[in-house]
Amino acid sequence: MKEAPLHCLEPQRLKALEEYKILDTKAEDSFDELTQLASEICEAPISLISLVDPDRQWFKSTVGLDAESTPRSIAFCSHAILQDDIFEITNALHDERFHDNPLVTGAPNIRFYAGAPLKTPDDLPIGTLCVISDQPKKLTEHQKKALFILAKQVVTQLELRKKTQTLEQTSKYKTDFLSNISHEIRTPLNAIVGFCELLQENSETYLNNDKAREYVQNIDHSGHHLLSIINSVLDLSKIEAGKMELNTSKFKVDKLLQQIVGILSPKANQKHITITVDSDKVSESEVCLDRNKLSQVLINLLGNAVKFTPEHKSIAIECETINNHLNISISDEGIGIRQDELSEIFDKYKQVGNNSSEGTGLGLSISKGLVELMSGQIELTSKSNVGTKVSISLPYTLACPAQVELNNTNITLSDMNVLVVEDNPINQKLISEMLNSLDVSVSILDNGEDALLLKNFSDYDVVLMDINLPGADGITVTEQLKQQGVTCPVIALTADVFVDNEKRSLFNDYLTKPVSKRQLQAALTPYLNK
């Protein structure tokens, strides 16, 4: 038996093999189908995808052989990777290199072998696609050509697999980056928006002149605008990752439209734009949809209409329900969109025309994603210098899961005791002020370890738990509290928006910063007097 010499580019070859991260992985259909096809075309009972590492040949896929690997020193494939073409042995007993090879003298009793090298795009052979028989034979030219083509397909699958892994890793890096950026921005933004809310609620006490009130309103508006930009980027990421979820509730369509128009009216009034709403056909109609996501879509669409409509023009909103579908259209007399740009209108980051107005270029892309998430359709028609019409159609139901809603903002929480576990001093102050204004008794801990040492959780009605705590994070603390038998409800209060559903399920509720006083009140109310 003659052992094959090392390849002349052995270090580079091994490095290329390592980069595929394929060794010792589970079977995959895309490779198994190729070995099956090779076996059938070449009329050989055994077919292998063999990858040659420093010590062995490892089989990514096998047909007709119950083995994972063999030593490299006795591998036929060690010889095959030295060839540019098909390496064929018609009868191993008559070949001095193999006649006394253990794979010939014993199982699987190789007589015939043909292997096509698996060459990377850099022409480095990392293994073979081979066919084997215990009977002498010879491939036809047609079979050789087919085996060579199938070997190329194996490499194509390896390249696709590597690119997929790279994309998945890049996606993870992006998610981690967005999560960190979101947390770092939301944490101070929670204080900015929250303290603005408290100031405006008590404007007569703290804001004793119109100019001060105007300044606070400007800060509040800018804070919410920054939040909307952050949310847009995060929403797009969630939609792309398939992690956006629906939360349906029953609501009146005409009331929702009134609220949306109310939000955009100040900007429209500045430009003397008239907004008309024809909602007679849905007056008092209730539908079951994701209200928040529909609101986001409508704010995006109406916001665009206001942004791109010149002064003293008009915008018309029409709404109707037909066959359990909610149909809403928004038509404006704006600058319109050129026909050659319509095909790109829903592309992410794309802002058509030469417009440099504020925004991320994500609004329409996110709107399309949200509408499709709700199993609906969105269409846009436009004519340059005439106007644009955007229409959405959403299927709805009449029955919704039971909802806990806060309809009475005057509910008193004066009997409640709340433990807040939060490390940021400014957010500690903000949450305390908000809860105190709701007559809630508050205790503060600035780390999770102290929470785990508490023995008197029965003194508290609710725990508000930050997730990104130093040391033991909020998820770990909550898990350990439950293991200790603590039954006190735990509500996550965090700037981390990328927590998966399994971890979210640890908590009784989940609030994302920045959080308003009304949101706190709504979250705490279900646990009043329990």
Q: Write down the CATH class of the largest domain.
A: Alpha Beta
Compute the number of strand runs. Answer: 18
Number of individual domains: 4
Structural classification: alpha/beta
Task: Return the CATH architecture of the largest domain.
Answer: 2-Layer Sandwich
Largest sheet: 6 strands, antiparallel
Radius of gyration: 33 Å
The CATH superfamily of the largest domain is GAF domain
Tell me the strand percentage band.
15-25%
* Unreliable stretches covering 5 or more consecutive residues: 404-408
Distance from N terminus to C terminus (CA atoms, Å) equals 82 Å
Strand order in space, largest sheet = 3-2-1-6-5-4
Apparent shape = elongated
Mean pLDDT: 88
Task: Tally the helices.
Answer: 15
Helix content: 40-55%
Q: And the CATH topology of the largest domain?
A: Beta-Lactamase
Please name the defining characteristics of this protein:
single chain; 530 residues; alpha/beta; Beta-Lactamase; Heat Shock Protein 90; 6-stranded antiparallel sheet; 5-stranded mixed sheet; 41% helix; elongated
Description:
- The protein has 530 residues and is of the alpha/beta class.
- The protein has four domains: 10-166, GAF domain (Beta-Lactamase, 2-Layer Sandwich), CATH 3.30.450; 175-241; 249-395, 2-Layer Sandwich (Heat Shock Protein 90), CATH 3.30.565; 417-527, Rossmann fold (3-Layer(aba) Sandwich).
- Helices cover 41% and strands 20% of the residues.
- The protein has 15 helices and 18 strands.
- The protein has helices spanning 10-19, 29-42, 76-80, 102-105, 141-201, 203-206, 210-241, 253-270, 291-308, 363-373, 425-437, 448-453, 474-483, 501-504, 517-524; strands spanning 46-52, 56-63, 69-71, 87-89, 112-119, 125-133, 249-252, 274-278, 286-289, 314-322, 325-332, 377-383, 387-395, 417-421, 441-445, 462-465, 490-494, 509-512.
- The protein has a six-stranded antiparallel beta sheet with strand order 3-2-1-6-5-4.
- α2 packs antiparallel against α5 (141-201) and α7 (210-241) packs across α10.
- The longest helix is centred in the N-terminal third of the chain and has 61 residues, at 141-201.
- The radius of gyration is 33 Å and the shape is elongated.
- The termini are far apart.
- Residues 404-408 have low confidence and may be disordered.
